[in-house]
Amino acid sequence: MPKLGTLEKVDPRTIWPDEASGFTPWLVENIRLLSDAIGMDLEVDESEAAVGGFRVDIVCKDLATGRPVVIENMLGPTDHDHLGKLLTYAAGWGARAAILVGTEFRDEHLKALEWLNELSGEEHLFFAVRAGVVKIGDSLPAPEFDPLVQPNEWQKEMRSQPSGKAKAYEEFFTRLLGKVKRRLPGLTSATKGLPQNWMNFPAGRTGFAYGVSFARGSRLRAEVFIDVGDAAKNKAVFDGFLAEKQSIEGEFGQELSWERLDEKRASRIAVYEEGSIDAGIEILDKLADNAITLLGQFIKTFKHRIAALPR
Description:
Blueprint: E1 7-10, H1 12-15, H2 19-29, H3 31-38, E2 42-51, E3 54-62, E4 68-77, H4 80-93, E5 97-104, H5 107-120, E6 125-136, E7 142-149, H6 154-159, H7 165-183, E8 198-202, E9 208-215, E10 219-226, H8 231-242, H9 245-252, E11 257-259, E12 267-274, H10 281-308
Parallel strand pairs: 4-5, 5-6
Antiparallel strand pairs: 1-6, 2-3, 3-4, 6-7, 8-9, 9-10, 10-12, 11-12
Helix pairs in contact: 2-3, 7-10
């Protein structure tokens, strides 16, 4: 008969004695483990980010939607303080999802997050994820994440398979992502394309993204997308860039489409070229190559300008 070891639980505080200086930095470096546990493709934007007089532990981007995700983590039993902060941070960032990560959860806090999922539907998502550490015999300790609360129908949605045009989008952006990792290394940690007509890439600052999408009229669009969560601030940033139109277009190397989008919260600066997801593989491959060239130009032109904006 084979000999099997026994899985043993390890006190997380023997691994991370301090929440702020130990657990939070570790989670930032290992966000992929949390992503896999909840089925959401997360990319870290900031840690210890300001929300009024408070600081949220981690702000991520949901690569499927480009929207913020806030994470509040703690060692020990959950409490009203951390749950209240999580909700405050989610509101402050206009987050799509709010994730409470802890080593022990009180029933009343799990019920509160379940209640919020029932109220909010698909627009806002709430998760409770228990973090633990295990080992077998003298093996190295290993982390584990156990989702205790997640939105209704979330797992069903994660298991669903795209079909038709959605599948074509997924295949195109997966190929595009492979090219991005070769030609623009370090731009993103995303692992696959999604069954949607766009993909965003981080611009080094929450509220800004470089994007590639299939737009109406059989056109492919590359862009800088501006959405810091507040319409007035978005328009102010756009207007500041517009004031530099001549120098920006000279640096970029061609005219740009300046889209203030007054009827919407966000704004964009874009370039278009003819192209449809229904085209053949050779044309789509060329479109992907052209899109990456344009992304490189947007990064070269806007990276320092975005970084120079006041916080």
